[in-house]
Amino acid sequence: MKRYKYIISLLCIVIFISCESDKLDIVNYGTISGVVLDAETYLPVPGVLVTTTPASDVVLSDANGKFTIQKVLEGDVAVNIKKKDYLSNSLSVAIYENQNTQMNFLIFKDDANVGTIFLYDPVPGNGAVDQNLAITFNWKVEGNNANIQLTYNIYIFESNSTVQQLLGENVDLMQVTTNGLKLSTTYYWYVVAKYQGTKVAVSPTWSFKTKDK
Questions:
Q1: Which residues contact 112 (CB under 8 A, 6 or more apart)?
Q2: What is the pLDDT of residues 34-91, one digit of tens each?
Q3: CATH 2.60.40.10 fits domain 117-210
C-alpha cells in the first residue's frame, strides 16, 4: 500500500511539473505602426500592402500612408511592403512584448522592367553590432538579365529618421566606403540598382549598430 501511495504521489508531481512547464511556454506579442512615403517626393503612399515574416495580419496603408499591425510575434520580424508600380521592399525590426515599434518606409516607383533583380548578402550583415565608425559596404546581385550593366545608389539613415545620406551615386562596383559614423548608433542602409539611369530594383533595408566606444 505504501508503495502504491508513493507511485501516485510521484505521478502527481510529474503532472504538476508538466503543467508548470506549459505555463512557462508563453507566446508574447507586440505591435508595429508606421508610415509609407514616396522615396522621391516624401509624400504618403496609400494602399500599400504591408505584411510580416513570420506572418501576422495583412494590412493596407491608409490615405495618409499610415498602417498598424496588431499582435506581432515577439522577436526579429521582417516587415514587407508591396504596391503595384512600386519596387517591393522589406525592413527587419525587433518586436518586444506589449510595446509598439514605430517605423518609416521609403518606397520607390518601378520605372522600368529589366528582369527580376535581387540585391542580397550585405556586409555588414543585417543586425550586425559593434561595427567600426568607418565601414566598407558591399552586397551581391542576382537577376534574370545578368548581362546588363547596373549602377548603384547607396543610402544610409539613422534609426527612427527618414533623413538620408547618399553614400554613393551611380557606383559601378558593388561596394562603397564611408567614415565618420556615430558611436552606439543604429543605422539603416539600402541599395538602389539602376539601368541606364532608371531604377530597376531596391534592396531590403538592412541595419547595423556601431560600437559603444
A1: 195, 198, 199, 200
A2: 999 998 899 999 999 999 989 999 999 999 999 999 999 999 898 989 898 888 888 8
A3: yes
Q: How far is CA 106 from the centre of its chain?
A: 12
Q: Which residues contact 51 (CB under 8 A, 6 or more apart)?
A: 58, 79, 80, 82
pLDDT digits (tens, 9 = 90+) for 197-209: 888 889 989 999 9
- Structure pTM? 0.64
- The C-alpha cell 502504491 sits at 4
C-alpha cell recorded at residue 152: 548603384
Which top CATH class is 29-107? mainly beta
Give the tens place of pLDDT for each residue, 107-145: 888 776 666 788 999 999 998 999 999 999 999 998 756
Under a CB-based contact definition with an 8 Å cutoff, are residues 14 and 83 in contact?
no
Domain ranges of the chain: 29-107, 117-210
